[in-house]
Amino acid sequence: MQEGDIKPRELAKEGFAISSLLQLDKNAYFTGEHSLLALGDDIYVTRGAQVVFSGVDFLSQGGRLFVDRSSSLLVIDSIFQNGEEEINGITWVNVEFRNTVVTYNGGPLRLRNVKFVDCRLGMPPFRYPTEIADAITSNLKQPVNYAYEPDGGQDHP
């Protein structure tokens, strides 16, 4: 296995749960040894906060990750399983999406070594970049590297 590869593994059997909206408006770094975080509600990064989740795996039970335009969210070395997730606006590094409805609503798109396993496209208001749509629907389980930063305030490619 090469450096940066996503190692095959299962989600932890025990972990923590978010059962109501969690708004993060201060800088924070969450690290785990593939700790499980069950998302019963959303995590929303706002007010210029810079937030990192490293080694934290997400099991969606209706919740999603969101970030406003003034903030940043970095997810590293994680699994995102089930539910629906909007991939734009968040930086994803060494992440595997499993059985997830993936949506793209325009804006920045930053994927480094990201896999999509048994995922589907959500109903977007914007057109998906072809490379990403193919990676999500083909189920080839190959990592994707892709970056798109809109020019001058444009919201989509």
- Total individual domains: 1
Number of helices: 1
Largest sheet: 7 strands, mixed
Kindly provide the radius of gyration, computed on alpha-carbon positions and rounded to a whole number of angstroms.
Answer: 15 Å
Global shape: globular
> Between the first and last Cα atoms, what is the distance in angstroms?
34 Å
Question: Which percent band covers the strand fraction?
Answer: over 45%
State the order of secondary-structure elements, H for helix, E for strand.
EEEEEEEEEEEEHE
- Helix amount, in percent? under 10%
What structural class should be given to the helix and strand makeup?
mainly beta
Report the uncertain regions: 153-157
- Counting DSSP E segments of at least 2 residues, the number of strands comes to 13
In short:
Helix content is 6%, strand content 48%.
Task: Using brief descriptors, characterize the structure shown.
157 residues, mainly beta, 7-stranded mixed β-sheet, 3-stranded parallel β-sheet, globular
